Amino acid sequence: KAGVTQTPRYLIKTRGQQVTLSCSPISGHRSVSWYQQTPGQGLQFLFEYFSETQRNKGNFPGRFSGRQFSNSRSEMNVSTLELGDSALYLCASSATSGVTGELFFGEGSRLTVL
Amino acid sequence: AQSVTQLDSQVPVFEEAPVELRCNYSSSVSVYLFWYVQYPNQGLQLLLKYLSGSTLVKGINGFEAEFNKSQTSFHLRKPSVHISDTAEYFCAVSEGDQAGTALIFGKGTTLSVSS
Fold first, then answer.
1. What's the gap in Å between the CA of A45 and the closest CA on chain B?
2. Out of A1, B7, B12, B49, which could bridge B22 as a Cys pair, Cβ 3.0 to 4.6 Å?
3. pLDDT at residue A72 is higher than 70
């Protein structure tokens, strides 16, 4: 069974640009969550989507947005990039919406903002 | 607000020695607790979780953790570590189903196992 796939794995952008990251969950999983990982702040929850609806949102500015498609694939978008957005962005999928189910994480998309 | 404190940022140990990685949390409500492991250049993998019931939880790779409500702790232990256990370990907490998949993570503990 294929795991969670994130693309691209690495990317470099400049300040002011925007970026779109993609996540394909494990087949049959309907919940997709996004986390930001930085050395200073650690792992922080961005948002969760379940059946194309945003279920929860973390404390991030509106520049961070996401969506989920009918096949459960998800994208997150960051507009007007800032240097502080440099991070590893992790996607996790789950069969259910709720933390009692196991989260399966992808390997992440490493974003560098110059 | 909830928070998770991992008391040691780095823990060096020798192979076959026991190890304990400490985690304390703050929350005014009942919580679910988790330990995840992250190997270099990889995503996170669930080691074990406490949802309810027995306070001693056994996970994968020989790890176990004990939930202590009075001390608000959830320390991770392994009686004998291997070189392959070298990784970063994260403790996480959730306030339950209303929080969905929104976990609050600690800053992580780097476990370095040497021979």
1. 6
2. B7
3. yes
Kindly report the number of other CB atoms within 10 A of residue A1's CB atom.
Answer: 6
DSSP tag of A26: P
Q: By percentage, how much of chain A surpasses pLDDT 90?
A: 87
Q: What are phi and psi of A63, to 5 degrees?
A: -65, -20
Inter-chain touch B102–A105, beta carbons under 8 Å: no
The pair phi, psi for residue B15, each rounded to 5°, is: -55, 140
Q: Is A99 within 8 Å of B90 when comparing Cβ atoms?
A: no
Three-state secondary-structure class, residue B74: strand
User: Is-contact B87 B111, C-beta < 8 A?
Assistant: yes
Predicted confidence (pLDDT) at residue A50 exceeds the cutoff of 80: yes
A54 CB-near residues (< 8 Å, 6+ apart): A47, A48, A66
Confidence at residue B1, expressed as pLDDT on a 0 to 100 scale: 67
Segment A49-72 mean pLDDT: 94
Q: Cα separation of A108 and B113, whole Å? A: 25
Which residues, 6+ apart, have CB-to-CB distance to B61 below 8 Å? B47, B78, B85
With contacts defined as CB-CB under 8 Å, which chain A residues touch B44? 43, 90, 92, 103, 105
- Confidence category of residue A1, pLDDT binned at 50, 70, 90: low
Distance CA A29, CA B44 (A): 17
Q: Which of B82, B43, B84, B77 is CA-nearest to residue B58?
A: B77
